[in-house]
Amino acid sequence: MSEQSKYPDDQGRTSGQGRRRDAGNSSGRSSGNASRRTTSDSAGETSGRSAGKRENTSRRTAADDVRRSASPRTTKSGSETTSKTKRKSSGNTRSGTEKNPQGSPGAKKKSKVMDALLTLVLFAAIGLFAFAAFNLYHIYTEYKKGSDEYNAIAEMAVTERKPDNTAASSPGGQAREIQSPMSIDFNALKAINDDVIGWIYVEAFEGINYPIVRGLDNSYYLHRTYQRNYNFAGTIFNDAQNHDDYSDCNTIVYGHNMKNGSMFGMLRHFSSDPEAYARSKYFWIFTPEADYRYEIISAYVTGVYSDTYTFFKGPGQDFVDWMNSQVSHSEIATTPGELNVKDKIVTLSTCTGDDSTRYVVQGKRVNVIKK
Length: 371
Known about the structure:
elongated, Sortase, Chain: A, alpha+beta, disordered N terminus, two-stranded antiparallel sheet
């Protein structure tokens, strides 16, 4: 008893200590186990994450390898590959060019269109040239036909004489009569055209040497020759309102201003050539009844509807005033002397190239040679 009671606390302490040790050991083991489990789990997670990272890294590395293998490399082998690729591309381009030297279908079509346009332009130019050449040939032949016709008429109808235009005195002291510079065979002329009323000759320009006709109007002979053939040169003709015997105060005679100088083509030289009037200031009109000599009193450009083309019913002061007015218009200096109601004027009229104007040379009668 006493021994048992001696150690009841010891047993209890022992028992309690034992239990505490067991509990402590158990707690420690549990804690250690937990700790180990936690450490192990931690290590496992760390190991898992490391493995995941290595796997991701491995995947990225593999992807990078794939991309690097797909893209050109900057290494020597990569440069060679790029160079080979360029050479191959260039070779393909050259090969394509050799196979299709004319270019693409679009270029071929454009080339064909340009060729067609150039051909069209060429043919148009040739056509215009041919048309111009034809017109020139036509004009030349017209001039030649007209000139040949009038040359033949003059050869048939005109007998020329050496003109004697001086009023020299005869041995008896009397003034010698003026002789006509030519004689005209009006019978031969009437056999060809009975509209003939006279013949004109301008001393300063011997080329103005033509028959004169008068038609029913001022249009018929504009483009008809003396033989009534169509020709642009036409015929020298009197105004239809004038009388045939040149007895009117103002007789108007029309003629074309031909570029080759034929018809009245030389008249304008009275204004442009100072020597023309100096050579001679006279022109002649021959008729079946008489030969008339006229002295030039004016030469100028006038309007188509000017008072130059005035007709008078008879002589009077208005006619004298009109003559003085015509002299004042002259582009050249003349010596008309005193003008009076007995004067007879002939107005030679031709075109100027301007439809609104005409060039005129006017002369007053100074000599009459009866036949």
